[in-house]
Design brief:
Largest interface: A-B, 19 and 20 residues
Oligomer: heterodimer
Shape of chain B: globular
CATH class of chain A: Mainly Alpha
Number of domains of chain A: 1
Number of helices of chain B: 12
Largest sheet of chain B: 8 strands, mixed
Number of strands of chain A: 0
Number of helices of chain A: 3
Radius of gyration of chain A: 13 Å
CATH superfamily of the largest domain in chain B: NAD(P)-binding Rossmann-like Domain
Distance between the termini of chain A: 14 Å
Strand content of chain B: 5-15%
CATH topology of chain A: Non-ribosomal Peptide Synthetase Peptidyl Carrier Protein, Chain A
Strand content of chain A: under 5%
Order of helices and strands of chain B: EHEHHHEEHEHEEHEHHHHH
CATH architecture of the largest domain in chain B: 3-Layer(aba) Sandwich
Strand order of the largest sheet of chain B: 3-2-1-4-5-6-7-8
CATH class of the largest domain in chain B: Alpha Beta
Number of domains of chain B: 2
CATH architecture of chain A: Orthogonal Bundle
Chain lengths: 91, 281
Amino acid sequence: MSEIAQKDRSKLYHFIESNMTIYDDDIEFVDSTNIFTSGFVSSIFAMRLLNFLENEFSITVPDEDIVISNFSSVNKMCEMVSRLKTIEAHA
Amino acid sequence: MTLIGIVGAGVMGVDVAINCAACGYQVVLMDKSAEVIAKAQLEIPKRLRNYKMLSPAYRELDASQLSSLINFTTDISSLSDCPWVIENVTEDWDTKASVYKQLDQICSDRTYYAVNTSCISITKVAALMQYPEKVIGMHFMNPAPIKRCVEAIRGFHTSEDTIDAAKEFLKSLKKRMVLVNDMPGFVANRLSHLFMNEAAFLVQDNVADAVAIDSIFKEGYGHAMGPLETADLIGLDTVVNSLKILYESFQDPKFRCCPSLQKMVDAGLLGRKSGQGFYSY
């Protein structure tokens, strides 16, 4: 399975951080943080995440993967992107 | 199958079309610009994918099936047989007036008109029509396919029959109608702009910073967003313009624009779209 490079992970962090609706300096935001339940972003932001991931990583997320749980944390998104890139590489 | 006419194929018009088609209606989506209509055709499958994420009701829908329920046109006369016409053109009086004058010539006394607006007077629109009792405001919230609440506005002439028909129609779209009366800003804009303006005064008066104000709003009152991040999202120039309209309409000092908010706009700090507002982006 292809790995998501650190610089791509950083881009994802930057995109989420620039759209956060919480601005405290002392929040904990790590790879496993659920960005929706933690209140960092609204669920409507998930739609923008879908567009961001498809454009940034040149993938097409199939309909069955368009579920909010696949977009809930940096880890979950990286797992999905990695899986889809592997499938596309073997297609 | 009931035919719903939708005028204006911008962001809101397309979203309302998706909502209607998803609920089983045949839709005529009309825009005077062929370019906008062509873009709308491409936009619908993309938006549907987005809404699949947020609502189980959209998960099972097939994009081609949904698109097949929507007829795209630049010809306003295609709306002549629609029992409902939902108008979504730009929030500009001259643009809206031009559309309603045409609809009045084309449609019959059986047509109900829904004015999708957050600020244009429903009474003034109705005054353009032969059947003003058939005109009602429907302020859909963004994104329309997801947000359940619709602020419905009763104009001076709006009849009880029209209100009942609107309630039934919105129910069929899985919406909940909240009926209010016609006054500038209705409820949504009038309230939200007071909150945003007062929050700007709090920053100006050095009572608290933006983070503290928004935190109290969210964590204390349970709102999804604070007034200042909302202002940044809408655009501070838009907020200032709306405040000016409210001030001029009511001649009430409570709507006076916070001087520091005006100063931010003058300095080009417009919120998210300029990269700097109450927050940096």
